[in-house]
């Protein structure tokens, strides 16, 4: 079988992670595009791609590309996805799928209708211990779920001198912290529990109304959300990009009637399994875990796995689906455009609630 031929639009932090994951999954990185032809040339050399394209449009149109990975700033996701689907390419698009919730729904419907594989890297699902948490919740081992809570905290935008294209609503979208990282938390917790956030109330905060390069700031640094789920649980999450000392602290806990599970993305080799009489730190040992978690555990216990391993496992699942020609199907293993459209709707509800100071149905 010929290796899949993939190309990557956008070669910043995450584009490099996609290139690595694609190679680990046995694909050829045929080419890359960047914000200019010159930058694309340099990126092709840096990432070991076979060639560079002068533009993302040229990359998408290339006959020798099977799968397009879209890793550009957020405002370009929707337009590039449309071009890629129209060109008959399978698409891996970074989150958020679109800067607009209705547009994200439209893109998910377009992809579904195309029969092409579509995926969005909500890769924290690919931590073995997150999958173990899911198994323990879904199998009933913790009892009926009562509350879901947690946070996603970072500090890279702590100071007013910290800046990025994400700060600018035109490039990143109206929501920054929530769309950027809160979306990961919601996807992960809904995936683990099977609960869906059905209504919410949110408070947002912009700590720095001015930043060094972007000037006046309209996007939020902090979000607090309180919510109810469709299955009768309650929950809350704090999302922040200005929490000193927190680098990528995605943490959640699910409290059931008998036990709790809690998972910390920065310490992903363990899962805390709580009980009133006995609380245990479960280690990632494929010999003792559920089949779902063992599948995501390619090396034995004591050989730590991390973010890039999750990414590689995600991309491998997507490429398996492309090779199988199976279409997205009803319940694929990997997160799809439909999942990303769902997080876009939650993001939209968060902004509307913060603006109106009301509870909003998702
Ligand atoms: N799934 C995850 O865990 C995860 C993690 C980080 C970032 N992301 C997402 O990935 C995307 C990129 O984020 P990043 O952190 O890599 O940003 P980045 O700033 O490091 O990289 C973005 C790149 O896109 C390039 N670019 C700009 N215009 C372009 C165009 N027209 N065509 C091609 N390239 C263009 C820029 O030159 C830059 O190299 C964002 O949408 C972000 O939300 C996802």
Automatic annotation (TrEMBL):
Keywords: Oxidoreductase
An MF annotation (GO) of this entry: nucleotide binding
Residue ranges of every copy of the Gfo/Idh/MocA-like oxidoreductase N-terminal domain listed in the record: 4-118
Residue intervals of the GFO/IDH/MocA-like oxidoreductase domain: 132-261
Keyword DNA-binding: no
InterPro entries xrefs: Gfo/Idh/MocA-like_OxRdtase_N, Gfo/Idh/MocA_oxidrdct_glycsds, GFO_IDH_MocA-like_dom, NAD(P)-bd_dom_sf
The protein's name in its UniProt record: Gfo/Idh/MocA family oxidoreductase
Organism: Actinospica acidithermotolerans
Taxon lineage: Bacteria, Bacillati, Actinomycetota, Actinomycetes, Catenulisporales
């Amino acid at each position: 079988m010929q290796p899949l031929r993939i190309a990557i639009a956008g070669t910043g932090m995450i584009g490099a992670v996609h290139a690595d994951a694609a190679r680990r999954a046995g694909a050829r990185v045929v080419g890359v595009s960047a914000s200019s032809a010159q930058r694309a040339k340099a990126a092709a050399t840096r990432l070991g791609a076979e060639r560079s394209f002068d533009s993302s449009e040229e990359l998408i149109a290339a006959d020798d590309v099977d799968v397009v990975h879209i890793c550009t700033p957020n405002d370009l996701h929707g337009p590039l996805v449309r071009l890629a689907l129209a060109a008959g390419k399978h698409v891996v698009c970074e989150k958020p799928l679109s800067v607009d919730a209705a547009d994200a729904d439209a893109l998910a419907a377009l992809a579904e209708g195309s029969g092409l594989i579509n995926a969005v890297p909500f890769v924290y699902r690919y931590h073995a211990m997150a999958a173990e948490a899911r198994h323990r919740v879904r199998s009933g081992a913790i009892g009926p779920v009562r509350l879901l809570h947690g946070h996603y905290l970072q500090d890279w935008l702590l100071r007013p001198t910290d800046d990025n294209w994400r700060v600018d609503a035109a490039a990143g979208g109206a929501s920054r912290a929530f769309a950027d990282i809160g979306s990961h938390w919601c996807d992960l917790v809904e995936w683990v529990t099977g609960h869906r956030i059905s209504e919410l109330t949110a408070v947002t905060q912009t700590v720095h109304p001015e930043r060094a390069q972007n000037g006046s700031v309209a996007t939020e640094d902090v979000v607090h959300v309180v919510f109810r789920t469709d299955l009768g649980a309650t929950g809350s999450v704090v999302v922040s990009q200005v929490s000193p000392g927190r680098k990528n602290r995605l943490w959640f806990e699910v409290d059931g009637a008998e036990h709790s599970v809690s998972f910390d993305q920065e310490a992903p080799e363990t899962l805390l399994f709580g009980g009133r009489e006995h609380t245990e730190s479960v280690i990632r040992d494929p010999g003792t875990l559920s089949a779902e978690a063992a599948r995501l555990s390619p090396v034995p216990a004591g050989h730590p796995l991390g973010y890039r391993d999750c990414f590689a496992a995600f991309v491998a699942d997507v490429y398996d689906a492309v090779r199988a020609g199976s279409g997205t199907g009803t319940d694929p293993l990997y997160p799809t455009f439909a999942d990303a459209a769902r997080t876009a709707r939650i993001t939209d509800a968060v902004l509307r609630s913060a603006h109106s100071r009301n509870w909003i149905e998702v």
